[in-house]
Amino acid sequence: MARLPDLISPSILSADFARLGEEVDNVLKAGADVVHFDVMDNHYVPNLTIGPLVCDALRKHGVTAEIDVHLMVTPVDNLINDFAKAGASYITFHPDATIHVDRSLQLVHDLGCKSGLVFNPAAPLDALEYVMDKVDLIMLMSVNPGFGGQSFIPSTMTKLKQVRKMIDDSGYDIRLEVDGGVKANNIKEIKEAGADMFVAGSAIFGAANSDDPNHYDSIITEFRSELAKANV
Fold first, then answer.
1. Contacts of 129 (CB under 8 A, 6+ apart)
2. Which residues pair with 116 in a beta bridge?
3. pTM for the model
4. Angle in degrees, CA 202, 203, 206, rounded to 5
5. Are the beta carbons of 225 and 214 closer than 8 angstroms?
6. 133 is annotated as an active-site residue
7. What span, in angstroms and rounded, lies between the C-alpha atoms of 98 and 167?
8. Residue 148: per-residue pLDDT
9. What is the pLDDT along the chain (232 residues), one digit of tens a residue?
10. Which entry of 41, 68, 136, 179 is annotated as an active-site residue?
11. Active-site residue among 6, 38, 68, 136?
């Protein structure tokens, strides 16, 4: 089964929120594909970040790229509704954050968005067995959720290979995303393990001189170069 094209998805968690619209414009101009939202509620994870108003504001600012909303919240259904109305493209959540996984996935689709499940580093993949026909995206956390700037957990590589086989065996066009500690020095290996969508926050937004509007070009170009070397 042919792999889907690689997508680079910068996480705005590491962006300069005082000029968020400009930051997103610049990173997309530099070649990023998707805008990643890390939504935390200080309940499911120990941090509090952004809500649907920020998504709506970026759409009104003129952002037309896909917006990938990762809900680290519980419960999830109300925010699924709110983010769909605010312009989200993908909405993903953790299986243990909702009582009815199938129903919440269906809700995402009913609202016109692409749906996905997210698995923490120590979380089993059991929930996938029954919903492969309802997910457009599977995301593996390669750090423990809640904070940016953490190091990649190596055992994620084994899990990536397991999920890639599940996707290939299913026959569905499901994206496999990795979030946490993705950098130029490991993105090639992450792709070779099975990923085709790569979230990077501090590796992109913290990579260079923020006074230069073109400073994201070099890091995204380096990412692309490393991805092109992958043996898949």
1. none
2. 92, 137
3. 0.95
4. 55
5. no
6. no
7. 23
8. 66
9. 688 999 999 999 999 999 999 999 999 999 999 999 999 999 999 899 999 999 999 999 999 999 999 999 999 999 999 999 999 999 999 999 999 999 999 999 999 999 999 999 999 999 999 999 999 999 999 998 766 667 899 999 999 999 999 999 999 999 999 998 999 999 999 999 999 999 999 899 876 555 665 679 999 999 999 999 999 9
10. 179
11. 38
**Taking every pair of C-alpha atoms in the chain, what is the biggest distance, in angstroms?**
48
Helices of type H across 62-111: 77-86, 101-110
Tokens of 38: 């890390």
Assigned token pair, 20? 């968020």
Please give the domain boundaries of the chain with CATH numbers for all domains.
7-228 (3.20.20.70)
- The per-residue b/e assignment along 190-211, b for 16 or more CB within 10 angstroms, e otherwise, is bbbbbbbbbbbbbbbbebeeee
Closest C-alpha to 70, from 79, 78, 61, 57: 79
**Which residue do the tokens 């689709």 mark?**
109
Active site (annotated) includes residue 179: yes
Please give the Cα distance from 124 to 159 (Å, whole number).
Answer: 9
The per-residue DSSP string of 141-198 comes to: ESS-TT-SSPPP-TTHHHHHHHHHHHHHHHTS--EEEEESS--TTTHHHHHHHT--EE
Compute the 3-state secondary structure of the chain and give helix, strand, coil in percent, each to the nearest 5. Answer: 40, 20, 40
Tokens 């084994």 belong to which residue?
158
Q: Cα separation of 62 and 41, whole Å?
A: 27
Place of tokens 């073109």: 214
